[in-house]
Amino acid sequence: MGKRINWKATILLMLGSLFILLPLYLTITIAFKTPQQMTGNLFALPESWSIQNFLTAIEMTNFFQALGNSVFVTVLTVVLVITTHSLVAYAIARNMHKKFYKFLYLYFISAMFIPFPIIMLPLVKQTSIWGMDNIVGLALLNVVMQLAFNVFIYVGFVKTIPKELEEAAIIDGANTWQVFWRIIFPIMKPMHATVAILTSLAAWNDFMLPLVILSDSSQYTLPLVQYAFQGQFSTDYNLAFASYLMAMLPMIIVYIIAQKWIIGGVMRGSIK
Amino acid sequence: MVKRQYAYLFMVIPALVLFFTFHTYPALQGIFYSFTDYKGYGTWDFVGFKNYLNVFLDTRALSAYGFTFQFAIVATILVNIISLFIAIGLNSNIKFRKTLRAVYFLPYILSVLIVGYIFKFIFTHIIPGIGQALNIEFLSTNILGNPDLAWVAIVILAVWQSVAFNTLLYLAGLSTIDQEVYEAADIDGAGAWAKFWRITFPLVAPFFTINMVVAMKNFLMAFDQIVALTGGGPGQATESISLLIYRGGFQGGEFAYQSANAVIYFIVIVVISIIQLRVLERREVK
Question: Radius of gyration of chain B from Cα atoms?
Fold first, then answer.
């Protein structure tokens, strides 16, 4: 065994992948069609590939502003998450034998079981009073909401780092902060990658938190813009699909370039 | 040594303060308001357990719980069966392995809301079109408009989107299995089915447990899928608990009442997760 190719599984999987590719094929072709072309066979290719739908959708939804907002929220969230969550997890993992840190660990982890709706109503009131109903506030809240899961996987990783590495640095006179930034943080690189991937996917595609937090439509992220424009789109599917395609495209491009890395990163996160 | 302890404290204190302020404190506030008649504005009074009692008498809330459970159970089972088989397929000696893995993981990176809008079009126009062309009656109408069937559409969307991530978790599980076990089974003349039930399934059991718990928890919180496909309709046939809390709390002036609903919802999710963990972990040991 080992070398023989399993053709039965290959063919079944290829047929199965049509379920995934067909909706995407429809999205692309409909985005390029005109309303007149929608009357015929919906699976047909567009007669001419016009980019007019995209231009109209860009203007209508203020696409580049929403794209900028999504990029801002995602980048700020990921940077804050990686620098702070790894630090918190390090302090917890190295002091797990102490009651306070053990309690802190369980306290953070328990948040994984708290459904967002239970904190949603008071949180929204509070954030609007404190002027956090904007994309900076959204990024900060993302950092808080992701803490539970990230501390969980970072702590698991720190435990595998031998303490001897730190002890050598301490003898050389490094303090705890230097030990973390110079030795531990760089060693955590594979975990940073995993956390960055999972966090950016969550922040980029999130809908519920931006929906309840953001009050100014000029700060809307990409999914929220699609939601806000549903009413206007309802008569023109081609325009809507051009807009959907553009909203999904940045992630699809990143995925095509970095797919091996992304799949590996998520698998690593799940074995922890 | 003392200095070192201070450093560790400084590493965790800011996170602790932020976490308490933006997570625990709102949760406590929610619990507090659930015992009042607060509308989200103006004055309020304590009303004891009245809100809790009313949730159990509220047909709209009960139907939201009913729908959410029905949807979550069916979706959890389907996602786990499908993703386990896809993972086994992707783990075997197939051609185009990398490409197929990339395709099967693709839905995970897409926004549920936007995929939901695309599926809405498919359910509204494409499927009835095919049904009419082929003269298949049950396909010729839009199931999103049917109160008895709209939940099926939400299951299809949820399964389409979640199979990707669960497949990856199972692939991670399968990669921990030593190939020699299968070689030994081959020598003993075990068939594919026997190998699955005797070797693969028991060895990925911990991943099965995690997948079941996580999938169930996520589906119980369904929101995006429903907003995109049905908006809770027709009528309130597909209104999930999250959607009900969101609508009642923000648009219906039911801040206190929906806070009570949210507390019940929280307890339900925790109890279900614990039961699942207990039952499934007991199976693992066998």
Answer: 24
List of residues 6+ apart from B245 with CB closer than 8 A: A117, A120, A121, B258, B261, B262, B265
- Residues of chain A found within 8 Å of residue B90, distances taken between Cβ atoms: 13
- Quote the CA–CA distance of B157 and A126 in Å, as a whole number: 34
**What rounded mean pLDDT belongs to chain A?**
90
Rounded CA-CA distance B166/B159 in Å is 10
In this structure, the number of other CB atoms found within 10 A of the CB of residue A43 comes to 12
pTM of the entire predicted model? 0.91
B132 part of contact set with chain A, CB < 8 Å: no
* Candidate from A126, A251, A267 with C-beta closest to B110: A251
Mutate to test the interface with B, among A1, A63, A105, A121 (most CBs of B within 10 A): A121
Taking a C-beta distance cutoff of 8 angstroms, is the pair B112, B92 a contact?
Answer: no
> Do B263 and A118 lie within an 8 Å CB cutoff?
yes
Cα(A13)–Cα(A206) distance, rounded to whole angstroms?
Answer: 30
Residues of B in contact with A244 (CB under 8 A): 114, 117-118
What pLDDT digit, counting tens, does each position of A74-108 carry?
Answer: 999 999 999 999 999 999 999 999 999 999 999 99
Contact A194, A269 (CB under 8 A): yes
Query: How many C-beta neighbours within 10 Å does residue B242 have?
Result: 24
Chain A nearest C-alpha distance from B157 (Å): 11
The single residue listed with the structure tokens 């020598």 is B187
DSSP state, residue A37: G
Smallest Cα distance from B107 to chain A, Å? 7
Q: Does A229 touch chain B (CB under 8 A)?
A: no
Query: Contact, B234 vs B5, CB < 8 A?
Result: no
Residue-wise DSSP of B22-75? IIIHHHHHHHHHTTB---SSS---B-TTHHHHHHHH-HHHHHHHHHHHHHHHHH
d(Cα B226, Cα B233) in Å, to the nearest integer? 9
Q: What is the ipTM of this complex?
A: 0.91
pLDDT of residue A271 exceeding 70, the answer is: no
**Nearest chain B residue to A206, by CA:** B111
Burial class of residue B46 in the structure, from the number of CB atoms within 10 Å of its CB (0-12 exposed, 13-18 middle, 19+ buried): exposed
Q: How many CB atoms lie within 10 A of CB B67?
A: 24
Q: A222 CB near a chain B CB, below 8 Å?
A: yes
Helix, strand, coil: what percent of chain B each, to 5? 80, 0, 20
Please list every residue in chain A whose beta carbon sits closer than 8 Å to the beta carbon of residue B119.
23
Best mutation target among A13, A43, A260 (most B Cβ atoms within 10 Å) is: A13
Does B105 contact chain A (CB < 8 Å)? yes
Mutation site for A-interface testing, chosen from B12, B160, B266 by largest number of A Cβ within 10 Å: B12
